[in-house]
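We were asked to recover a plausible sequence for a given structure. The inputs and outputs are reproduced exactly as logged, with field labels preserved.

PROBLEM: sequence recovery
POSITIONS: 169
GIVEN STRUCTURE:
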C-alpha cells in the first residue's frame, strides 16, 4: 500500500564552492545538512500495518551529504587539451524506508575518476571509472506483497569502467 504524507518540512544549510589553485588545478567542495520531519503523516505503511509517523524523520534522506573534487587541466602543444579528475561523494547513514527494519540503512562513500584528451580536429577521447572503490549499498528497500517478513532492495551500480570517443563539428 502506498500513502502520501500530509505534510513534511525540511530545514537545512547548503554550500557550493570552487577554488582554483592555479590555472591548471581546481578543487570543488559542496555539501548539505538537512533536518527533515513529517509534520503530519497519519496512516503511513508500517511493518505491521498503518502507523502515525508525525514528528518522525523521513527515511531515505541523509542528514549530511558532501561532494569533493580535484581536477587538473593541461595542454600539449597548441592542438591537444587534456584533463584528469577525481571526485568523492559521501552521504551519511540513513534508514532506507519507513516500512522496513531499522537495520536496513545506507551510507554512501563513492569515488569516481576520469581522464581525457581533446584534439583541435574535433576528436575527443575519455576513459572513466565510476564507483572506483566498489562501494556497495542499497538505493531503496521495500516489503514485497504476499511475502511477510521478507524485503526487496535495489543495489547501486558496481565498479564500472568505460571509454568515450566523440567528434565535434
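RECOVERED SEQUENCE:
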Amino acid at each position: 500500500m502506498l500513502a502520501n504524507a500530509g505534510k513534511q518540512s525540511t530545514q537545512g544549510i547548503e554550500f557550493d564552492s570552487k577554488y582554483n589553485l592555479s590555472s591548471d588545478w581546481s578543487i570543488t567542495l559542496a555539501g548539505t545538512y538537512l533536518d527533515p520531519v513529517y509534520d503530519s503523516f497519519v496512516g503511513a505503511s508500517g511493518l505491521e500495518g498503518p502507523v502515525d509517523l508525525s514528528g518522525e524523520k523521513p527515511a531515505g534522506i541523509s542528514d549530511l551529504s558532501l561532494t569533493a573534487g580535484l581536477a587538473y587541466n593541461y595542454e600539449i602543444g597548441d592542438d591537444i587539451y587534456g584533463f584528469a579528475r577525481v571526485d568523492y561523494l559521501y552521504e551519511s547513514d540513513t534508514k532506507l524506508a519507513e516500512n522496513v527494519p531499522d537495520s536496513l540503512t545506507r551510507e554512501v562513500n563513492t569515488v569516481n575518476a576520469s581522464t581525457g584528451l581533446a584534439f583541435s580536429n574535433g576528436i575527443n577521447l575519455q576513459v572513466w571509472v565510476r564507483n572506483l572503490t566498489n562501494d556497495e549499498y542499497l538505493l531503496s528497500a521495500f516489503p514485497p506483497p504476499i511475502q511477510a517478513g521478507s524485503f526487496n532492495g535495489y543495489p547501486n551500480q558496481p565498479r564500472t569502467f568505460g571509454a568515450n570517443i566523440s567528434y565535434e563539428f
